[in-house]
């Protein structure tokens, strides 16, 4: 089987999310990559070094700069004429593009796979991860999004892929990019961090969140996450949200501070290796999944913890 | 302009789903069902656009069993004008739903179709994007802000790195994220009024769509269970644990 992997990038370098997808695709067959962007040859050169990669298709066109699905999907659909599976990270970029490609190919997409069980058989979470479905596709071609935390990352070096230019139709004339407000942070990215400190509604407001959570995260070199309640209340921006419909994380250590543990939140973090919960309510559901629990008032316990580390 | 809002009847988001003992699916017998939360946000957004004078008519659509009429009545009570139920007891995959919606779009010619970004049962996150592809129209997915301006719409999207704004020419497809709005509750008088609003019942065959599933579910199982660990007495004990783990 020939697979086509969507390379997640910012036109300058390959994003980590790509590596787990390469591993998933390699379980199906030959791994080809697609780098679609603008002025992104360096990305293709970098991607070609990922271990196990064959061909790297480079589509360099201003219309692909921001990954607009209207422009990119027809390009992918055309390349799928000689590939058997389109394999994409389950990031917001991937989730935006893949179903558009699937519909163009008249294929039912398989979302968020956790494992490859056979050529056409996969497992995937449903009901916020409260059930795992094993599904088999009957379509001639596959379109798959991959949950990054479920697969090991491929080695970013050691490969010797060949970069080949491809051209697509470019601008479909349906949409345009206006602007972005992207969070700038010195901290590690949530989805690839080894340690995450996450705060919930109990943090009261944005200022308190900052005062309590950030020093602990800085001490541990951790990324910062939040529950939906904390994001909805405006303590932190949307890109902090961990959960069923936010980011799915699986760090070595997840420290949940003042988070009760709604099923939608647990869906986003329960695959973490060690879960630590600090909450003053000893009956909070978060303690049912926590490896280490501390029943305490977070406003004294967390600064105390930060001071003692 | 008309706005189409597809809504899905799903397990209530407060209910913990249980896997059936025979591994064929999730037990939905006697379980509370509600409108998919993202679809409520979609209905609310359509109503706000109508209230702002940007739309004239809101049509709620559901593809599902007879009982999905309740979900449509909820949408009507919130403020949708009429509803269409495409009735089937079969499980309909996003691709087939998108095909049915495409046929309805051809009849109704809406300026916008607003959908939830994903249903909390199958967690697919596909229908809106698929519909946009089938119609050859632009898509604004995971929206946290929707602003109509003449013949285009600016959609601010919640993306992994923060927020991104795209401009789409109308007609367009929008899928909702959590921060777009806070859906209203239907008032009792509106619930009564909704009972009299028009609700047409159709079938997938009426739209010439084959809903045969492309994916076969071989089994549904429980995820690995995490058991509760230990509780530590105080911060010092937690620090000791973290040191043991090599974290601090």
**Strand order across the largest sheet of chain B:** 9-8-7-10-6-1-4-5-11
**First-to-last CA distance of chain B:** 59 Å
Order of H and E elements of chain A: EHEHEHEHEEEEEEEEHEHEHEEH
pLDDT < 50 stretches of chain A:
none
Order of helices and strands of chain B: EEEHEHEHEHEEEEHEEEH
- How many separate helices of chain B? 6
Portion in beta strands of chain A: 25-35%
Radius of gyration of chain A: 21 Å
Could you say which structural class the secondary elements and strand pairing of chain A correspond to?
alpha/beta
* Biggest beta sheet attributes of chain A: 7 strands, parallel
Mean pLDDT of chain B: 96
The tally of strands of chain A reads: 16
Word description of this protein:
The complex is a heterodimer of chains A (309) and B (248). Chain A contains eight helices and 16 strands. By secondary structure, chain A is α/β, with parallel strands linked by helices. In chain A, the strands form three sheets. In chain A, strands 5-9-4-1-2-3-10 form a seven-stranded parallel β-sheet, sandwiched between helices. In chain A, strands 13-12-14-15-16 form a five-stranded parallel β-sheet. In chain A, strand 14 (253-257), helix 7 and strand 15 (274-279) form a beta-alpha-beta unit. Helices cover 27% and strands 31% of the residues of chain B.
List the main descriptive attributes of the protein structure presented here:
heterodimer, A: 309 residues, alpha/beta, seven-stranded parallel sheet, five-stranded parallel sheet, 8 helices, 26% helix, globular, B: 248 residues, nine-stranded mixed sheet, two-stranded antiparallel ribbon, 6 helices, 27% helix
Short characterization:
Chain A has 309 residues and is an alpha/beta fold.
SSE layout and pairing:
The complex is a heterodimer of chains A (309) and B (248).
Chain A: E1 2-6, H1 17-26, E2 30-37, H2 41-47, E3 53-60, H3 69-79, E4 85-89, H4 92-105, E5 110-113, E6 115-116, E7 121-126, E8 131-137, E9 142-146, E10 162-165, E11 175-182, E12 195-199, H5 206-220, E13 223-226, H6 228-232, E14 253-257, H7 263-269, E15 274-279, E16 292-295, H8 298-308
Helix pairs in contact in A: 3-4, 5-8
Chain B: E1 2-6, E2 9-11, E3 33-35, H1 37-51, E4 57-64, H2 68-78, E5 82-87, H3 94-108, E6 112-116, H4 127-135, E7 139-149, E8 152-159, E9 162-169, E10 172-176, H5 188-194, E11 199-202, E12 215-221, E13 230-232, H6 235-244
Parallel strand pairs in B: 1-4, 1-6, 4-5, 5-11, 6-10, 7-10
Antiparallel strand pairs in B: 2-3, 7-8, 8-9
Helix pairs in contact in B: 2-5, 3-4
